[in-house]
Amino acid sequence: MSTKKHILNPNNWVNLHADYLFNYTISRVNNHDLAKDLVQDTFFAGLKAMDNFQGKASERTWLIAILKRKIIDYYRKINSVKGKAEVKMNFYSDGEREGEWIEERVPNSWGNEIEKNIENSELSTALEKCIDSLPEKYAIVFKMKTIQQFETEEICKELDITASNLWVIIHRARTQLRKCMEDNWFNN
Length: 188
What we know:
Order of helices and strands: HHHHHHHH
Number of domains: 2
Oligomer: single chain
Helix content: 55-70%
CATH class of the largest domain: Mainly Alpha
Largest sheet: none
Shape: elongated
Number of helices: 8
CATH architecture of the largest domain: Orthogonal Bundle
Radius of gyration: 21 Å
Strand content: under 5%
CATH topology of the largest domain: Arc Repressor Mutant, subunit A
């Protein structure tokens, strides 16, 4: 019994896999430019890691595995302290201090803590009301995935839904939450 050994052909990656990888990515990050960047990063990482390809999986499966890691890395980065700090609050746009104000250089306090705590409390209350206004299934899935940080597989097993159904529910919940927050918090 012989198993077919797959080969890589990077010259055809864009034609054969770019659309599939983009569609896979856009359903997870919901940002066209970011999705394109992640697919491009995947192709680049694939080129760099070609020597590690053993031929056990198809080219597309191997690229999807790389892409999944890129997406996870992206979410880890934006949710880390460092990632949040890298959303540059760059008050220095020229001279010696240009681009310097990131990571640990971000000030810990911007001023009146009491005001901030009240505002955070009000924001938290508004967000809780918006989550409570979601359809029950949307609220449960949203809380499990976003707040309690359950893995997709755990949620799907627990609620007996497919992964694609989960992502549709998350997308719809986020859309409804955005509208609710715009109506009840940002327009006050």
